[in-house]
């Protein structure tokens, strides 16, 4: 009886069928992601490019007019300049601080706790960080931490006057000497007490511990006098006379000036009385401008000149921790024997850091730097929240200008789409460089 032979499919055909089946399965799994990618990324990009060639209403084709307006509009040029400042300063500063923190925390016992504190701002949203730093940069030293510290340091070395509003009253023996100083009309004489009355300081603004003024006692070989507030609360009292209820101006500097030179000086006491030596006889007395110097109010952190560096400072506060963690992970992979060999060969810590640690961390530093560059090109919320409305034009960046142009009171979707395309064109090369670098790293 003859055996029955069952025909079999060629092996190549079976492999092709299996490959097709696997491709279909892969396509089935990828299809939802591709649909979402097309709907949320590809279509918006394509529509933005298309819309950028039309006018405000979207009905008239204007060609490249929107792109030409980007180059001619002063506000957008400021946004471009500020974006360039951000790209240069923010990533490099955050990366440098992250590198310093990562290296130093390896040598301290509480390094983990320090890393936690530095990384903690990453848990805060940009909106919350913006609100925090809007208060930090407040111009009022009683509210803004930055100005409170700055004013405290300034006043340590240059104390402001307690009587910035003081000035001579009507029929006063003092006249304006220019530059904020006041001088007596006539020369003074030893043995005749001098009266230097001032007004203009509110009673509640007088320093704590202010005492009642006292009329100076005549001294035959001295020039004596009183500096005080010639004002009686509730009315009454005599002009240019020390009345019992009037307050003394203590700490006032009094100078005796003759022929343009200061020949003697004194400071009024707690009762407003001052005493000058005999050589002040025949000179005129001057209250220098330092007596009336306004209290130092600090720095306008959110003024036109400093608003961009101030906002960059808030960004660095948030992202230095991110840089530190990534660099710290890369630092843990650095071979310790190389560092120890360099130290044995006589290299100091700076040479080890500069010639060994930093070159070995080069790939990690590149990752951090490129990531932050891409991030700052899209910065929006920090600038929008921190910069006051009056200086938003000075702090403007491309992402904020995109929002203001597209959704502001005078919205122009065509110009806004052109700005979006410009931002994409600026970001894509950095992304391509990053992708190329990652492929090279994967091929090693």
UniProtKB/TrEMBL annotation:
One GO cellular component term, please give it: plasma membrane
Taxonomically, which superkingdom?
A: Bacteria
Q: What is this protein called?
A: ABC transporter permease
Q: Where are the transmembrane segments?
A: 24-46, 84-104, 116-137, 314-335, 356-377, 415-435
Record-linked InterPro entries: MetI-like, MetI-like_sf, UgpAE/MalFG_permease
Ranges where the ABC transmembrane type-1 domain occurs: 80-434
Q: Which family does it belong to?
A: Belongs to the binding-protein-dependent transport system permease family.
Q: Where does this protein come from, organism-wise?
A: Streptomyces subrutilus
Listed A to Z, the keywords are:
Cell membrane, Membrane, Transmembrane, Transmembrane helix, Transport
Compartments reported by the entry: Cell membrane
Query: How the protein sits in the membrane?
Result: Multi-pass membrane protein
């Amino acid at each position: 009886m003859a055996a029955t032979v069952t025909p079999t499919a060629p092996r190549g055909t079976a492999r092709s069928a299996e490959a097709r089946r696997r491709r279909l399965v892969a396509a089935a799994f990828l299809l939802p992601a591709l649909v979402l990618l097309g709907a949320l990324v590809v279509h918006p990009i394509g529509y933005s490019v298309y819309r950028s060639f039309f006018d405000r209403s979207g009905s008239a084709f204007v060609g490249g007019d929107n792109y030409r307006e980007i180059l001619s509009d002063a506000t957008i040029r400021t946004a471009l300049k500020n974006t360039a400042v951000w790209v240069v300063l923010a990533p490099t500063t955050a990366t440098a601080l992250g590198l310093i923190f990562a290296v130093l925390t390896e040598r301290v016992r509480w390094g983990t706790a320090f890393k936690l504190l530095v990384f903690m701002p990453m848990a805060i949203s940009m909106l919350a960080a913006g609100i925090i730093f809007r208060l930090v940069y407040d111009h009022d030293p009683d509210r803004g931490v930055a100005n409170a510290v700055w004013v405290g340091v300034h006043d340590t070395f240059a104390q402001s006057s307690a009587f910035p509003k003081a000035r001579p009253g009507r029929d006063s023996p003092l006249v304006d000497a220019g530059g904020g100083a006041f001088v007596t009309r006539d020369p003074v004489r030893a043995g005749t007490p001098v009266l230097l009355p001032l007004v203009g300081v509110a009673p509640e603004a007088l320093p704590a511990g202010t005492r009642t003024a006292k009329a100076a006692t005549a001294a035959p070989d001295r020039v004596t006098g009183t500096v005080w507030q010639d004002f009686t609360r509730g009315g009454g009292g005599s002009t240019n006379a020390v009345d019992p209820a009037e307050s003394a101006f203590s700490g006032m500097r009094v100078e005796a000036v003759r022929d343009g030179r200061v020949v003697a000086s004194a400071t009024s006491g707690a009762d407003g009385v001052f005493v000058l030596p005999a050589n002040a006889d025949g000179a005129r007395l001057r209250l220098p401008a330092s007596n009336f110097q306004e209290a130092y109010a600090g720095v306008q952190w959110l003024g036109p000149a400093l608003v961009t560096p101030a906002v960059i400072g808030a960004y660095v506060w948030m992202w230095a921790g991110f840089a530190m963690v990534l660099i710290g992970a890369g630092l843990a992979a650095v071979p310790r024997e190389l560092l120890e060999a360099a130290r044995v060969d006589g290299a100091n810590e700076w040479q080890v850091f500069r010639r060994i640690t930093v070159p070995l961390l080069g790939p990690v530093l590149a990752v951090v730097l490129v990531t932050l560059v891409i991030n700052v090109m899209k910065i929006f919320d920090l600038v929008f929240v921190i910069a006051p409305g009056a200086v938003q034009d000075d702090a403007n960046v491309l992402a904020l200008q995109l929002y203001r142009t597209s959704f502001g009171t005078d919205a122009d979707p065509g110009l806004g789409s052109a700005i979006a395309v410009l931002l994409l064109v600026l970001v894509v090369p950095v992304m391509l460089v990053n992708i190329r670098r990652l492929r090279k790293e994967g091929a090693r």
